[in-house]
Amino acid sequence: MSEINWRKSSYSGAGDGNSCIELAFIGTTVALRESDDPRTVLTTNPARLGALLQSIKAGALDHLAAVPKT
């Protein structure tokens, strides 16, 4: 997948050590990867990615990051 034009957020900064999610469009598919592990690529479509982002912004997935009480 080296010929794919990967984009990362301008908020990440430049250079190594600035891990972030990178996106690329492959036809009508959206590909996602983490910059520090570029061999692992997930794919989805724009509608599903949009729904995920809306859920994240709305806090609907916050419970998944909660630390269990001991």
Q: Could you explain the architecture of this structure?
A:
With 70 residues, the chain is α+β, with helices and mostly antiparallel strands. It has one helix and four strands. It has one helix at residues 46-58, and strands at 7-8, 21-26, 29-34, 37-44. The chain has a four-stranded antiparallel β-sheet. A hairpin with a 2-residue loop joins strand 2 (21-26) and strand 3. The protein is globular, with a radius of gyration of 14 Å. It starts with 6 loop residues before the first strand and ends in a 12-residue tail after the last helix. The model has no long low-confidence stretch (mean pLDDT 87).
TL;DR of this structure?
The chain is an alpha+beta fold and 70 residues long.
pLDDT < 50 stretches: none
| Number of helical segments with 4 or more residues | 1
Element pattern in H and E: EEEEH
Strand order of the largest sheet: 1-2-3-4
Q: What gross morphology would you assign?
A: globular
SS strand fraction: 25-35%
Task: State the end-to-end distance.
Answer: 44 Å
Any idea what the radius of gyration is?
Answer: 14 Å
* Number of DSSP E strands: 4
What's the helical proportion of residues? 10-25%
* Oligomeric state of the chains present here: single chain
Largest sheet: 4 strands, antiparallel
Instruction: Please state the structural category.
Output: alpha+beta
Provide mean pLDDT, rounded. Answer: 87
